[in-house]
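User: What would this chain look like folded?
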Amino acid sequence: MGKKKTNNDDIQLDDDFFDEDTNPKIKIIVASCVLAVLVIILAVVLIFMNKSDEDTEVKNDLQENILEYAQITDDSDKEPEVTPEIIDRNEADPSPSPSLEPTPTPSSEPETEEADEEDEGPVMKLDVKNFKSVKYDTKANLKEMEMYMSEGNFEAMDDLAHLDRYLAMSYAYRDTMDYAYYGDLNSDGKPNGKGIAVYADNQYYYGDWVNGVREGEGLWAHYHVHLKTNVSDSIVFHMYRGGFKNDLPDGEGQDHYEYDERFFQKDRNYITNYIGGFKKGLIDGELTVVSTDINGYIIQYNGIAHNGSFEYISESRDAKKRGPVLVDMENPDNYYWLSDKDNKNIGVKSYISKSK
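Assistant: Here's the prediction, encoded as structure tokens.
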């Protein structure tokens, strides 16, 4: 027998199924579902709002970090800002005075430095020390250095110039031609009379000043203090003592070099002294020139210079196209030879001055 087909129209629904009064369980179920949906929607909204706040905070932090980084980058590219410090010798000492003890600086592994001995350039720019943390008193430092410079006590000068508080004082003026000064002033507050100044790159001057410039008799000293391992710079100390005019070596004077002989090369002479005339920082006039070599052999020469160049003694040239410019004082047949390229702008090297 076949299965009897049922007509959907014949299905009878119980009216009591939808009767709220007679089915309280259904009401509770429906209400619970609605409440659950509302709770889920509220939770989603709260999560979204919280995430939005976190994203905003992250964005703000990121923006602040970017601005801070940009500021650091900009500051690193700027020239160091220093103000020339002019201290009157008669100015009363502050009380209490700042501590003169240097703050310990972080250690660092030494790095190699390449320097050209012929071109005496700055030696402090390669920095491995944090001199910003070193405490020093400029006035006290300069008073102390002046005492030894006025006495010509070079050993004591050397000891001071290598202390961290002196290195930090000089380092503050890096990449500038400014200086700190202690000494006599004129009515306009400019260095005038006797005084001492410190410049960048461990350079010091003590002597006469006129209206803010070095003029008269004085002593200029340049200490080659390497902040990274020195591998080629044979110069350890450079000094000019004599006449000055318009802030430059001018007049009779002595330009003196001291070397680390470990860097000496064979078959090469090293000038230790130019003694004689100078003009605008360059050799000019009659000069006595002293040289040494790797064997410690010393020769004294005579020569004449004009505006930073020696006169050639003859038209002779050697295989390297060098001509004789100086004659040995003890052996007239021995000469010091220079090429045209090297025989110009000879004078006090690395001297910091706005008048150059």
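Helices lie at 24-77, 138-151, 154-161, 164-171. If you want, I can go into more detail on any region.
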